[in-house]
Amino acid sequence: MPVNLLPPEPADLLPVAGVRLGVAQAGIRKVNRKDLTVLLLDEGTSVAGVFTRNRFCAAPVQVCREHLAAGDGIRAMVINTGNANAGTGAQGLVDARATCEAMALLLKLQPSQVLPFSTGVIMEPLPVDRIVAGLPKALADANDTHWAQAAEGIMTTDTLPKAFSTRVDIAGVPVTVTGISKGAGMIRPNMATMLGFVATDAHIAPELLQSLTAELAEASFNRITIDGDTSTNDSFLVMVTHKAATPLITSLSSPEGLAVKAAMLTVSRQLAQAIVRDGEGATKFITIQVDGGKTTEECRKVAYAIAHSPLVKTAFFASDPNLGRILAAVGYAGIEDLDPTGIDLFLDDVQVAIQGGRHPSYKEEDGQRVMKKSEILVRVLLGRGSCTDTVWTCDLSHDYVSINADYRS
Amino acid sequence: MPVNLLPPEPADLLPVAGVRLGVAQAGIRKVNRKDLTVLLLDEGTSVAGVFTRNRFCAAPVQVCREHLAAGDGIRAMVINTGNANAGTGAQGLVDARATCEAMALLLKLQPSQVLPFSTGVIMEPLPVDRIVAGLPKALADANDTHWAQAAEGIMTTDTLPKAFSTRVDIAGVPVTVTGISKGAGMIRPNMATMLGFVATDAHIAPELLQSLTAELAEASFNRITIDGDTSTNDSFLVMVTHKAATPLITSLSSPEGLAVKAAMLTVSRQLAQAIVRDGEGATKFITIQVDGGKTTEECRKVAYAIAHSPLVKTAFFASDPNLGRILAAVGYAGIEDLDPTGIDLFLDDVQVAIQGGRHPSYKEEDGQRVMKKSEILVRVLLGRGSCTDTVWTCDLSHDYVSINADYRS
């Protein structure tokens, strides 16, 4: 059961001029499953991406990086589920390239204008023939209204499709941002993959796109964690079609730049948070905000130490205000000169700890009242400076173990 | 059910001349429980310790560091369970000192000659009065044969006491090493504490002791992990009574030094591994050996990334050869210039991966045969150099979640 997440209403997902999506059943791993999604982009679209930092990155991630670097103008994306094409060695690269070549042939493009994405089983060869056979069907389905279908097409162990949309006025012209994501369920015998795709018709100077994409990822997908396992296939792509009839946005600090960035961040964060809400076995959505750090980085280290602690996560699952576990995680987060007597801890509005010890007025029933909620804010004040950072995570439940331990049948 | 661990036979635990141990019921948190242990050392004993790196370290850890630094000659240790005296602020320090003062008064020592240890509930005030009231009973019980009782006296959620002994001949004289440990169960509403105490009657030059202790810890307690949560109270103490009638050992590289060190390492490792074998919910004991690194440190990073991955740990629980998860963990361990195509992976004698991909002759039934065992060796070859390191861990089971999520009744 996802935490406060509903399936998208197709009518709420606004088309982005210049982007069409199509889905097909290619029988990649299972029959009767929409497992092949294509994303078609009008000529002139600017595309940027950020990818997993896992050194064991999958073949499609390597090909994506090459094709983005080639600079020939990305015009299409192919996303298959059922097979991650990871841990597949040299053959994996051959297979990822073959997918791009087949798509390019159908669309009269260069292979370098196609980006491949795969998610699913690893260490098994990619069934390129089935993907290639499915492409014409997916292309025939392509339509600018098919965002909800595409969100469903890229699902693996996700229990719900994830798609969000927003609109912002720039110089009196409506600009649309729509995106889809999947993850971080781990399909057996396998690992998770997070995929995120955000498109906008905003007219943004292409040279701003890579840093904008990195900035969006940092504040959304790079701030979530289910279990700390970084997948081999994680990819986040931003597409800008330039179709909105506004003046060119040449700075992200201008009022127009800020407005578009904010809209894109809204969608990116919703997509990222939806992954946590649909996290394996998740029963709670937890925001961990660390204030008062000397640097943003040290705030992030503390937030991740809390978010990754199995003891903290199981305590949330149990609605148990076992809050010393949070203080302990703060202590081992890696801030060498941390003074524990400077630390305060809040759970929503309840002050649990002051100056590193239990707050005199803290009552366990107050802590438990908050722990029973499905959305919880953990706030740590380091008392060292004015920096802050936030991470979103979920609890660790019996279902997490079941989902990841259950031997494939 | 601990993994291949039996309770110690009291007769197997060899007394160490100059060390006496006593246990009492002090009613610190529960009645009818041996919760207070004292360790008495003859004059002239050398003592060194290493402690948690958690910045939120508990009051007794702070006092231990002070008293060891004072150099007045440690003569006694007081260990209570039921309360960790952590997250207790300034009062915690007052309470830890009061414990030492009470013990010193009874033994006609300076308080700085007493080391305090606490493990149990955190963020609750230490019941010093009950500890002080219990000390005479524990002292009356003190005896050089009470190692097994002491191992039981320091248990919290441990299911079995942990104690080991060995003897080595130095210049024709038998030298004894005996030790006890506890952890890493987390008593609710609480966090784990690892405690380890190793004593020997060896005649080792005192100036060698601190580096010897650090070296022993590095190769034993610092190579185990249950869930990656570093406790606020972890402590490892080495006591050398100098009672064995051998020449003074002035170098740890001499034959005698090497022999004593090896005996102490044997006991330290057994104690550390026993903690993993008795890890919360553990059903498997897993050795993770990483070879072929450029540095020992990078081997350790890889070993810990594998050992801490919830995906790897749940796969072991399920006896599921879901081995891409191990490769993925290698990939995100933080070696920036890692070449995935240089990596081989073995499970016991079964080669799973070669050059970063599935080994052509690997069959899943072979992987599963190994995964079903209760003791498993994971061996990763990085192919970058000649360094190696090893970490011991356990799997992640439903019982782990139950133990840590079950709200205290």
Level-2 CATH architecture of the largest domain in chain A = 4-Layer Sandwich
Overall, the morphology of chain A is globular
What is the count of distinct domains of chain A? 2
Helix content of chain A: 25-40%
- Can you tell me the CATH superfamily of the largest domain in chain A? L-amino peptidase D-ALA esterase/amidase
Rg on CA atoms of chain A, Å = 22 Å
Counting copies of identical and different chains, the oligomeric state is: homodimer
Largest interface: A-B, 70 and 70 residues
Strand percentage of chain A: 15-25%
What is the number of helical segments of chain A per DSSP (H or I, 4+ residues)? Answer: 11
One letter per element, helices H and strands E, the order of chain A comes to EEEHEHEHHEEEHEEHEHHHEEEHEEH
CATH names the topology of the largest domain in chain A as L-amino peptidase D-ALA esterase/amidase
Strand order of the largest sheet of chain A: 9-16-11-15-12-13-14
Strand count of chain A:
16
Mean pLDDT of chain A, nearest integer?
Answer: 91
**Uncertain ranges of chain A:** 186-191
Please report the first level of CATH classification, the CATH class of the largest domain in chain A: Alpha Beta
Biggest sheet layout of chain A = 7 strands, mixed
Overall structural class of chain A, as computed from helix and strand content, comes to alpha+beta
What does this protein look like?
- The structure is a homodimer of 409-residue chains.
- By secondary structure, the first copy, chain A, is of the alpha+beta class.
- Chain A has 2 domains: 10-277, L-amino peptidase D-ALA esterase/amidase (4-Layer Sandwich); 285-405, Ubiquitin-like (UB roll) (Roll).
- Chain A is built from 11 helices and 16 strands.
- In chain A, the strands form 3 sheets. In chain A, strands 9-16-11-15-12-13-14 form a 7-stranded mixed sheet. In chain A, strands 3-10-8-7-6 form a 5-stranded mixed sheet, sandwiched between helices.
- In chain A, α1 (59-70) crosses α2 (89-107), α2 runs parallel beside α3 (128-140) and α7 (296-308) crosses α9 (324-331).
- Chains A and B meet through α2, α8, α9, β14 and α11 of A and α2, α8, α9, β14 and α11 of B.
